[in-house]
Amino acid sequence: MAREVGDRQAEGQGLIDIGFLWASRDYIKTGDYFRQALALARDLGDPAMLGHSLNRVGNWHMSAEQPSEALRCHQEALGIFD
Fold first, then answer.
1. Widest CA span in the chain
2. Most buried of 9, 20, 23, 36, CB within 10 angstroms?
3. How far apart are CA 82 and CA 68, in angstroms?
4. How far apart (Å, rounded) are the C-alpha atoms in residues 61 and 40?
5. Torsion sign over Cα 30, 36, 42, 47
6. Cα–Cα distance between 16 and 11 in angstroms, integer?
7. HEC profile for the chain?
8. What is the C-alpha to C-alpha distance for residues 15 and 41, in angstroms, rounded to an integer?
9. 46 vs 9: CA distance, rounded Å
10. Is the full-model pTM beyond 0.85?
């Protein structure tokens, strides 16, 4: 619905929320939704949304045993929040 009405902020939050819903069933899909939210945040240039999305993607990478990619995402998020 957010896409249909052009509410890109709500779309980003919806992608994160859907990602969390998939976490217990299909962790690959979780990562896909989190990365979509990250791409949207980059397109929008919204620092808060970008930082939160990077944190989610970083957490996903850590859970997927990809620590170097997780660290990269978390360092970028920290730079935004500082």
1. 38
2. 36
3. 21
4. 18
5. negative
6. 9
7. CHHHHCCHHHHHHHHHHHHHHHCCCCHHHHHHHHHHHHHHHHHHCCHHHHHHHHHHHHHHHHHCCCHHHHHHHHHHHHHHHC
8. 11
9. 9
10. yes
Residue appearing with tokens 């962790």: 27
Residue pair 61/69 in contact (Cβ under 8 Å)? The answer is yes
Contact status, residue 34 vs residue 57, Cβ threshold 8 Å = yes
The residue count for the chain: 82
Per-residue pLDDT tens digits for 26-68: 999 999 999 999 999 999 999 999 999 999 999 999 999 999 9
Q: Looking at this protein, which amino acid is placed at residue 47?
A: P
User: Quick one: CA dihedral 46, 48, 53, 54, positive or negative?
Assistant: positive
